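Lecture notes, unit on protein representations.

Consider one protein chain, 312 amino acids long.
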Amino acid sequence: MDVIVLVVVAGLFAIVSGMNDGGAILATGLKLPTVRPATGLLTLVAMVALIPLATHQVALTFVNRLATFHDPGGRYAMTIAVICSLTVVLVLSAKGRPTSLTLAIVGGLTGAGLGWGLPVSAGSVALVLGFGLAAPVVGALAAGAVTLLLLRLANAHSLPSWHRVAFIVQCVAYAANDGQKMLAVFVIAIGTTDLGLGMTTWTAALFGLGALYGLPKAGRLLSREIIVSRPLHGVAAEVAAGGAVIASAAAGMPVSMTQAVAGALIGAGMSGGGGRVRWYAAIKIATAWLLTLPASALLAGMAAWTAKTAIP
């Protein structure tokens, strides 16, 4: 029964990941008809299923480097971490402050590990935080440069081709990095590190279900509210965010694709002048990011300590 509960929680986490992340990934190119939402969603789901079969270093970072969750106590702590992370994300989203589920789960796992008395690696947590803070900044800087490059190389006829390539890069980046938080939760729940096609396919299917539901809201926020977007900005943001996230995946460091995309959109918009950026929306999102990790860590730490104390 315990394993069933853990797997159900892991499945719920995959669905909410799709709701929170899927729309953000598809949003940047919504002003171009090159990749239709249905095609884009199927491509993203396929990448989430297949890429981890080639590399799943980021999933192992969640499982092994932040804290040790393999014993039964660790699996209970993981469940608490997931529930608390989802609570923080859903509360902030309900208040109009969409945030990063990756930040939430990093905070939740760290807090639950400490609250349960598991060995938590302060160095690994600090390193993950450093990469997380750098992702939107690197995305913004790279997007500015990519925008200027596309202004020279692309035109109205060639931009759709650039978009196809950029979108695939972004999907690969998400599957190689941010998307692996879902696999990490399943790995801890089931108690195995053997990532077969069956596990990745089920994870991707649940993610796709959530993305289908969450696309309109998340897509509207990133494609319309952060900047006065042109198609060129979306393509530049996809390339820049994808490159930044793939580089982090190569180091085994989890970063948030939504953070990287938001930073890249701002960078792309600023290449034509800061007036294109809706700073009130950017500040609202950045504030939510700053609240997410400590809130998740505190809530999960208190919940884990209380649960462990109550268990005889």
